[in-house]
Structures
1.
Amino acid sequence: MTAARAELDRLWARGTEFLGCKVAIMGGAMSWVSERHLVSAISNAGGFGVIACGSMNPAQLEAEIAATQAMTDKPFGVNLITMHPQLDDLVRVCLAGKVGHVVLAGGIPPGGAVRAVKDGGARLIAFAPALVLAKRMVRSGADALVIEGSEAGGHIGPVSLTVLAQEILPHIREVPVFVAGGLGRGEAILSYLDMGASGAQLGTRFAAAAESIAHPNFKRAFLRANARDALPSVQVDERFPVIPVRGLVNEGTKRFLKHQADTRDRFQSGELTKEAAQLEIEHFWAGALRRAVIEGDVEQGSVMAGQSVGMVTSIQTTAEIIAELMSQATAALAARSGK
């Protein structure tokens, strides 16, 4: 197995070198979940934790970075949403806090933010949902890419990782590419390393980790769930677009369907303008993720989860999860070489 481990290290050497860690496994940035405890635990276990800034203001992010640094001396990153109204200030907070890697997610990164990250000496990681955008991100200065398939939890694109990997990995060689979406076992990670990926990003497996501050009800929902229980949100009327979010089906998701239909009817009767109706639909889930993750309301809250949730069968420490993934990958490599 020593030779197999050496081969695994060779396969993801570009990823570990880029991230500055021993294991090229990034933690997915999950709002309310990816905070100091989980992020530091992933980094301390040899992986690469990523703080989910989400809707934090600059002062909150500054405190979170400092608290994480107090819990680990290993590298970690910060994920910023490009639509955040204080994006420039958040970038400055990351640079002042000596964060080495900044992830810009949720849209095409603005040129000003890209330049600020690069000029500040940090490495920029961007998401690429298609080959044409991957090439554009590289041209605009991204130092690495994440390609995330629709199997992932939370906000998703329309294309599976299986297809994205085939579309993008053979053509993007200039920067490291990390794969994400539906990953729950080491053999799967290995298959994408073989295709040219430099590492992987996992969220769902870590959301239910022992160090995750998610409510016990939230973790128990993961333990009970199968892959088919993690479905994207459904849009009732194309006039009122719904951003697809993958999560566990519960009473809240059923109420959302009825809420959309009722709101559409109020629009058609003239009670609401189109803009007001759209806002009514968008506001339905306001605070719903926090209700599930922090307060434990897994029936009415938003239980975001990827399809790999079916592979969450026990509460493990992050170190155990990473060790298990590596053991699976090295066993597959050893079997391949007949040892």
2.
Amino acid sequence: MLLPTLFIIVVSLLLGTSDSRLTLDYYAKTCPQFSQIIQDTITNKQIASPTTAGATIRLFLHDCLANGCDGSILISSTPFNKAERDNDINLSLPGDGFDVIVRAKTALELACPNTVSCADILAVATRDLVTMAGGPYYHVYLGRRDSRVSKSSDIDGNLPKPTMPMSQIIEIFEKRGFSIEEMVALTGAHTIGFSHCNQISKDLYNYSKFSEYDPQYNPRYAQGLQKACSDYQKNPTLSVFNDVMTPNKFDNVYFQNLPKGLGVLKSDRGLFGDPRTRPFVEKFAADESKFFQAFASAMQKLSLVGIQTGRRGEIRHRCDQIN
């Protein structure tokens, strides 16, 4: 993990010295309750709905990888604009992620009106939920502004899909400045959370004339998934855990599952099947501390992608609409 002083230099280089307003204590004077309010909100929500951590991490990734960490994923569509969240790839984002951000924003607006951006709330809530689930702590620099734009058309080609070949997924991360190791580490977020059955139905039923299901699956696991997902056509919300062993604990078991054929998504199984990504799967499976270190560093880096500061954005009154 980068040291705070070194990281400030990195922030300055990324933003340009005239616009580098991100600091660890950005709200110390304007909203001293900031950290406690977020901590209380995410704790209550995670206890009530244990899938919140996985949902929020996914929301954060989908926000940052598309147009940068600007909270644009949170904006609702209008009759005149189809927003990012209504793009096909984002329709499966769980509601718990959106809900916890709305709750935190509501509490913060009561305590410190017009002060805290939705983008900062999402970044810190994600970090705190990762830590609460047993994952690593990492510094989140604050001072982001919220985007005034959210267009569904901006998503296409910027987010990885489970059905994509590994080369395409690697390319998406590389154009955002991430190495293959960083990409594999970020994918380790699948250690918590779930996937909808309709995302894997083609891998489970009538896969080919030679096999009913994708042969990369462990056979017993595939049969279990078939049973769990049997009503997916009638119930589109039906889902399965990404990590069948420790679904609510942030650990390295996700990587240990992949060589055993226990990856839910095609892209999960592809990580072990591709010679470019397999060494990192094996590295993280063997040593949880190395995974945690790589994940924390990659998340810290991701949290700075495409951010808006100063007059380039706004502090939204509500996270789901532009002021």
3.
Amino acid sequence: MVDVGSFIGQIFVIVLLLVIAIFVVVVIFRSIRIIPQAYAGIVERLGRYQRTLSPGLNLLVPFVDRLRPLVDMREQVVSFPPQPVITEDNLVVSIDTVVYFQVTDARAATYEIANYLSAVEQLTTTTLRNVVGGLNLEEALTSRDNINGQLRVVLDEATGKWGLRVSRVELKAIDPPLSIQDSMEKQMRAERDRRAAILTAEGSKQSQILEAEGRRQSEILRAEGDKQAAVLRAQGEAEAIEMVFDAIHAGEPDDKLLAYHYLQTLPKIADSASSKLWVIPSEMTEALKGIGAAFGGRAEDIPRKDPTPRSKPNGPTRAAADAALAAAREAASAADDIATEARKTTPGTAAGPGEAR
């Protein structure tokens, strides 16, 4: 028969050993704490701050020391919702802010402020309203760097005793009212149209200036070309006249040759199709008389083989000379008559030499 007392004693011993083992495990578990990198742990002994645990393996006194929630020591980025802000010109704008901060003292962040995230948000909102309230809308839209700097300085000073360091504050968006946005868009559109019109006018002005300059240069070059051509033409004519003049004087022409060339030039006077009246100069008769005298003189200079009276010429040479002389005299008389009739029919024409005035 089994001894009941000894069996109960064995069970008690086994239970006690189990309790002791569980107690030891619990003690060991509560004594050892592993802190991750970039985190810090606050240890309280009997409800009072005892020390700050660094990353790594740390030992605590079980049932005496208590570890508070770990504090993140990395730089944190917090984006706050849009906040309505009234500007100096009484316009309500919505401003989104982003704050970059880092916990530098875990003890101060735990004991100096209850909720440092909420405190940073409220402090950012009040400081933002204070800074933007002294600016108008145009300055608020164009002075972001100035606003960011003022916010960072104020937040860094206020959060220093909380164990925080504010490294950067950014305005993510500034949204004016819709009516103001429409007005701003119209203003910008008008400004762009004005600049476009100015640029177009400047381009047109430059184009006209260049075209005028091109025309001026072209006219100058054309005038220079005409000048050079006229000079060369005049030089050529002068040289031609000089050569003709020298040739004439070198040939020593007599009155008969000049009269002959004068008669050759007369048909050119009436060469124009628009000539309705041809005035024969009085010098034409003199020229014809000269030609007749020349032919007559040559006829008289022809030697005769037999003494024959001048009234009875014989031979083909004498007959040709007399016919030419007669024709020249008739032409001179006809030209003289035509010139006289022309002077009579033309009013205001002076009488020629040898004519009755």
